[in-house]
Structures are given as C-alpha cells and as structure tokens.
Amino acid sequence: MTNPEILAPAGNEEALKAAVLTGADAVYFGVGDFNARRNAANFSVDGLKDTIKYCHSRGVKVHITLNTLVKDTELSKVCDTVKKICEAGADALIIQDLGVARIVRTVCPEIEMHASTQMTVGTKEGLKLLKSMGFSRAVLPRELSFEEIKFLASDSPIDLEVFVHGALCMCVSGQCLMSAALGSRSGNRGLCAQPCRLPFKVENGTGHDLSLKDLSLISHINELAKLGIVSFKIEGRMKRPEYVSAAVTACKAAVNGTYNSEYSKDLQSLFSRSGFTEGYFKNELGRNMFGYREKENVQSATKELFDKYAKLYNKEKARFPLKLEFHGKIGERAILKAEYGKIAVTTESENICEEPVNRPISAEKIIESLKKCGGTQFEAAEISIDNNIDYTLPVSQINLMRREALQKLSEAICKNKNYKISTAPKSTNIPAQNLNEIYCRFDSVQNIPENIDADLIFVPITTPDEVVRSNGYGIELPHGMFGNEEKVSKILEKSSAEYVLCHTLDSVAIAKKRRKRIVASPSLNILNSLSADEAKALGVSQMILSCECDLDLANKVSAPIEKGVFVYGRIPLMLTRNCPVKNGKTCDECKRKSEIIDRKGISFPVRCNMGYSEILNSRPVYMADRLGEIKNSDFIFLYFTTETQEESEDIINSYYEEKSPRGEFTRGLLYRGVE
After folding, report:
1. Shared-domain flag, residues 503 and 552
2. Is residue 457 part of a domain?
C-alpha cells in the first residue's frame, strides 16, 4: 500500500495556505477561465511560479485544473495557458475536454495528465482508453460503490483518485446540462448556477428531490488505500479556508488511525446539507441520501469553530526532519551540513573559528542555535557536532549558517520540473459533405413509425438482436454503466449492429474493442475542432456536437469525420444513479416513466434504464423550420423519448417538409449558447 495522498482544494491564497500548513500532500486549483470553478478567486498565471514554489518547498504537489469544455475561439488562449503552467513547473493538469488533452499531449507531453471526474470514466475499458490517450491518473465518478471501486483498482492501468469529502451532485459529473439549459450558465464550463439545490419535487418526495447530502468517506481512506487508490480528494474550491483546514486535518487523522466522531461533527458543523452520506459507497441508495442546506446547517458554524481551525494554519509547521552536522577547527571556517533524505547542502561561516580568549563556545550553545528552525518547514531531528570543541565562534555566525542551510534546502526541495515545450497542434480542416441525412434515436422499437424514412436508427441495447439485424438498426449503449460493463460488453459482442451510439468514453472504449462503427452522442461533449480530431483518433466515425454548441459554433467546428447537430428532442439534462422518483414511489408504481416538478410548476420527464435515470428537458428542441441555418453538417439528429409512434411519424415528416413548430418547444442552446 502506497502512502495515501491527501489532495486539498484551494479556491484562493488563504485556502492554499490552509491546505499546505495543515498537512495536505497536494493541492488543486484553477488558473484563469478554464476551470470548473470560475467563480472562485483562483490564481493568476503571472504569479503561478511563486505559488508553485511555495508549495514545492514544503513538499506539496500542485495540480492545475483545466477541466472545462472550450470553444474553438478559445483554443489559442488555452495553448498559451498550458505553456505558462508548464513553464511554472506544475506537477499535473486535470482535464475534461478531449481537445485540451490533445493540446497538452502535444505542447508538453512530459507533464502528467489527470482525467477529471468530468470525463465520466468508470470502467476498465475506459481506463485503458485513457492510458492510450496519455493520461496517468483518473478521478473516478462519485457514484461508485466500494465493490465497484475495488474491481476497477484490481488491475488498473493508471493511478486512481477518489473524492472522499464534499459536495455531491445529483448528476454524474460531466453529464449535467440543467444549469446551461435553464440559464446558459454551463457546469461544463465552470459556471454552474446549481438550480438542482432549489425545490424540485416528485410525488410524495422530499421537496428537494434533486439535492443530495454531502459526501464523506474520510473514515474509509485506509480501506481504499489498501485497494491501491493513490489519491484522496476533498471537494471545496468555493469553501472557506477553515473548511479546508478541518477537512485536511480529518483526512490526516484517518491516515494515522486517529479519526473519530469529533472530526466528523466539526466538519458537519462547518458545512453540510442535512449531514453526510455514504450511500453510493455502501450501495444504499434512496431517500436517506437527499438533503439540502437548512437553517440549522448554516447556524452550526460558530466563530469558535472557525477560530479552532484557523489556528491550525496561522504559522509554519515542521514537515521535514533534518540531520545536521556541525564542524569547526581553529583557523578555518566552520561547516554546517544539512540533510533531508537524499538531499544534502553545506554552508560555511563568514568568520574563521578562533582560539578562545577565555573558554571555547559550548556544545549546548551550538545545539541550541541549530535547533532554532521555528517558522520554517524544517525540524532539527538529529544534530551531531565535534566531540572536542577547542574553538570559539559568534552565535550570530551559527544562526546565519543555519538560515543559509535551510534556504538552500528549501530551494533544493522545490526545484521545479523543467519541461520541454513544443508548438500547439492544429485541427484538421475538412469541409462537411452536407449529406443532409437524418439519424433518429428511439426509446423503444414500439415507438418507431412503420414507414419511417431515416438514414440511421438507434434503438436500446436491450432490443432483441433479430429485430436489430432484420431492420438494420444501430444500438445505443447505456448512458451510465455503473457496474454493467461486463453485461454490456457481452451483449455488444453478440450484436449484429454495425453502428453504436456512445455517450461516454466508457462506451467508446467498449465499442472500439468490438470493432463497431462509433457514433459519438452529444454527451461526449465535443465542442471544438481539436476534440473532433481526438474523437477520430479514438475510433469515432461520426459525431454529434454537444448540445451546448450554439449555431455559430456548430457551423464553424471543422471535423475529420462526419458531423451532426441535435435538432429535435428533449435534451437529457441529468444522468443520475439515484432516481429521484423513488423518494415517493416504487419502480412498479412508476413503471419507469414519471416526472419531477420545479418551483414554478414546470414538469421534467424522468426515464429509467439499466440502473440509472435521466431527467429530460421540459420541452423538446425543435428546428425543422430553421434547418437552412445549419451549415457545414452531414446529418441532423432527432432524439425521441416521450413521443408515441404517431407523434414520431408526424415530427419526422415535419423535418422533411420544414414545417413551423406546434405546441411547446425550445430552440435549446442553438441561439443563446452558454457562458
């Protein structure tokens, strides 16, 4: 078992200090605009080198978050940011966007790439795919159980990191479009407005049926470390430094075997939503996992509690035990050797050691001077001096030697990596063939019109293969795997389908292994031209742009593979493993078709399948009357969910005839885009 890495959040300089001085092994924070917490204070690129030096001189690694989707217009700025981060000597970059991964791999292949939990990878095949892309670590989804984590860790090709404390989103990371759809504030671009924390209700539910309690798995750190998990992450870049201090302290206590209920009580008082949950970890899903920020939660954080944890980082802590050797000889300069591990430095006195007029300097005074490491990250753990001291030297000289030695050690310890920087990649500019084809996806074969006129039709993976084969259907892999990797792989192995609709890298990896033609759904989050290039490199043959693409972006994205645009259907706003409808009724009562209602009375359909639920938008996107505005695309994508067979037939005909909309509809994000 490796020593567990405690990875702490730093939303600002004070939180960074709190993380470092309370004993974090690594910190993560954002630089500029390309990180998932754009509303945090974050750090400037200009001062990054000094920030990293501060961390490295205390043995703390620095992981920089570049974990958002980026637009084509931002790619050059991302390249510049990557270069500056690497020049500053960061240890790793946390990434979501496929195009950003391509940039980093080209610009600085030596720096570690960590796959953000926003990449939604939670299968063995997905982890292998990440390794082939150059990733050395993956941050696992928070929805996994202990047994599922154990399975992935058993022979993972890359290092694994898990969240052990902090906020728990209802939606699987990287698959949430609710904030974007309701207000153009994209969670995938670091500006989530957290509408899910507002009242949403299902029949007989809690009234806050999209809001989960905070996660806390701190007591399980050593248990997970034995499985091979290398890093334990604390969520909270928007939290106070005292919260960071308390969480790091609790995690260190867990590693040392001294964690108890008092730590949990303090953490709950500092910040929680109706307490904590271990529901996913223990595979105990349901109503008990739900909670929201109540008045009692806010009032529990007292001044005394904040002061308690503020005191833990108000002064430097000794992190490095030193071995010091001091030698002197009359007529020569004294020498101090300081060692930490394999690092050793020496310093000499300015004055020579002199023959004493009265008496030599005492051994006690030398030792007393060398012990004065307070206010630094060092501790004089072992001191050796001359057996016979026959010289004298001013104590001020010894103090100066000690300070110089500690400074040299600090510089040696924090020596930043010197990466080789290369030029940025260029996207493949291949014009679309403008095939004007129609691809359709259906929830059920029963809802497919009898005389449908479509170029490619996707049906659920559970559709009998004889139906798939006789009709030439493609199949859709599950949006969420959640332990179903082996089951899905076996079905796909026997399937006669040529085309496979893939929502995540997990499904891409599984389909690629079976040599299927992969169509990337909007959930793969392809928003820029470099992401399209990377998708092709991964084996994708056709792609549907992210639903967060506005028309201008969609028309300008160049792709080396066929490109489509989502033009009809209820956009899946959330993918969740914890069905909100179960808060009020059983699956038999629901029949896998229900709804959730927001505070304004607007209804959002909920559909369940293979251990996960999808919350759909209240209205379908409709673009039949605006198809002429879609340029540089090969096909359009129609996504049928709640429609009957008759309704589906009418809608498809409307697209051929480019009819005006009837009933409630939305243009999605095709005109207003996302921030």
Report:
1. yes
2. yes
Strands 499-502 and 517-520: parallel
Q: How far is it, in rounded angstroms, from Cα 613 to Cα 482?
A: 12
Residues 6+ apart with CB under 8 A from 385: 325, 326, 327, 363, 366, 367
Domain assignment present for 580? no
Residues 283 and 365 in one domain: no
Burial of 328 (0-12, 13-18, 19+ CB in 10 A): buried
pLDDT tens, 367-421?
Answer: 999 999 988 999 999 999 999 999 999 999 999 999 999 999 999 988 777 899 9
Question: How many residues belong to the chain?
Answer: 675
Distance CA 502, CA 186 (A): 22
Three-class DSSP category at 512: helix
The C-alpha atoms of residue 563 and residue 557 are separated, in whole angstroms, by: 9
Residue 88 to residue 99: CA distance in whole angstroms:
22
Are 177 and 614 spatial neighbours (Cβ–Cβ below 8 Å)?
A: no
* CB-CB contact of 243 with 311 (8 Å): no
Distance between CA atoms of residues 212 and 32, nearest Å: 29
Give me the number of domains the chain comprises.
Answer: 3
Range of the domain at 538: 437-569+622-657
Asked if residues 568 and 622 have their Cβ atoms less than 8 Å apart, the reply is: yes
Sheet holding 200-201, edge to edge: 200-201, 593-598, 603-609, 612-616, 572-576
Outline where DSSP puts E strands in 206-317: 214-216, 231-234, 276-277
Question: What pLDDT digit, counting tens, does each position of 159-184 carry?
Answer: 999 999 999 999 999 999 999 999 99
Determine, yes or no, domain membership for 666: no
Which position has the token pair 């033609």?
Answer: 517
